[in-house]
Design goal:
Keywords: Cell inner membrane, Cell membrane, Coiled coil, Membrane, Methylation, Transmembrane, Transmembrane helix
Number of helices: 3
Structural class: alpha+beta
Membrane topology: Single-pass membrane protein
Radius of gyration: 31 Å
Number of strands: 12
Distance between the termini: 121 Å
Family: Belongs to the GSP J family.
Shape: elongated
Strand content: 25-35%
Helix content: 25-40%
Coiled coil: 35-62
Strand order of the largest sheet: 3-4-5-6-8
Transmembrane segments: 6-29
Order of helices and strands: HEEEEEEEEEEHEEH
Amino acid sequence: MKQKETWGFTLVELLVAIAIFAVLSALGWKVFDYIAKVKTQNAMHENKLGQLQESYQQILRDTVQTVPLTANVAGQVQPALTLQNNKLAFSKTGVTDPLNQGVAADERVEYVYRQDEQKVYRLKYPNINQSGRDQPDSSVLLSGVEQYQISVLNPNELTTWPDSVSDLSSDAEKQRLPRGIKLNLIVNGVSYEWIFSLLNTDFLEEKKSVSTPDGNQGVSS
C-alpha cells in the first residue's frame, strides 16, 4: 500500500519566516516612529511660527497706533515715547468702547524683556494718566527669546530716547516721536530683525483741533 504524502513547513522554514517577519516589523516600526517624530516637529515648528506671526502683528498694530501724546505718571510728565535700558514705553490710541463704558481711547504700553524667563512681556495701562500705583494688564508678547535688543530709528539707530538733542523742558520735544523702531531677536536659535515705522506723526495736530468738554485741548500733559 502506497503511503499518502503530507505537506507542511519544516522547523527551519518556520524559523526563517519568523525572522523575516521580525525584520519587517522592526523596519516598519522605525518608519512609523520617524513619521511620528517628523509630525511632532512640524507641529512644534508651526506653533513657534504662529507665535512669531502673532507677536509681529501685535507690534505692528502698536506702532501704527503710536501717538505723540505725553503721559502723566504720578504727577510726572513722561515723553510720548521713551527707550531706556532696553525698555520701551509709548502712548497709543485706537482703543474701542463698544459698550459705552467710558473706556479711554488712549493707553500706555511697555515692552519689557526678562532674560531669566527668555520672554518679552507687553504691559498695558488702560490710561495714559496714571497714579503710579496702577497695575498693568500683562501678557507674553514672545517666548523663547534668547537675545533681545530694541532701538529707535531717527533715522540713525539709537538705544536711548528721547535723544541727547531733545530739550525736555519743551512740550513739543516731549511729544516728538522717532521715525521707527527696530528689534533684533534670537528666538529658538534663529536670528530676526524687525523694523516698524511710526506713522502717526500728524496725530497731534488733529488732536489739538478737538477740545474736551471743559475747554482744554485733548492732549495729555
